[in-house]
Amino acid sequence: MRSETTPARPLGLTFRLDEVPAEGRRFEGALTEQSLGADLPGMVGDLGYRPTGPARIAGNVYRSAKTELVVDGRVTVGVGFDCVRCLADRVLAVDIREDHVLVRRKARVVEEGEESQTIDDEALEEPDVETFSGEEIDLTDLFRQDLLLALPMNPSCDDVGADDCRDLVGERAPDEPQIDPRWAPLLEMKKKMT
Length: 194
Ligand SMILES: [Zn+2]
Known about the structure:
Helix content is 18%, strand content 31%. Strands 2, 3, 4, 5, 6 and 7 form a 6-stranded mixed sheet that branches. It has a two-stranded antiparallel sheet with strand order 1-8. The protein has helices spanning 33-39, 119-125, 140-150, 184-193; strands at residues 14-16, 25-31, 50-51, 55-65, 68-82, 89-104, 129-132, 136-138. The structure holds zinc ion. The site of zinc ion has 9 residues, from loops.
């Protein structure tokens, strides 16, 4: 037995379940500027958000039971946008920390006559629980979703603490900007959370 242990190399956003020890392990990764560039423009009006670089992701992942992972991660990225009121070019510094519980999706054989219920159904009712199957875990979409949910729907100078909004006419921009319909379910979820 060694008296000293070398800290394990951090995992990426994709790893195998057996790479996560019970005491936890650090992970690090990023959402590339290119992938953000595909996700963000549809979020707000025709202009959308503009990534200023990759989103950095880092945190720790723990094994809480044989089939459960607890992920504690932080997402940091700067996203540019135009104020919905005065169109000033602003940059929102996103810095969020989120916890997630991941439960392994069981492929259970349902006996004849037995009520068809799997752990999957239970997990889906609990919004904070994500599922994975097999041995491979990919946190990319989890943090991508965290980031998208963290972005204001109508970003303005207020969101970056700027007090020089040039909203001289005092008229607010239309409350419902054109949003890419593909985001509708996500935005609906966001409305419920706020
Ligand atoms: Zn403004």
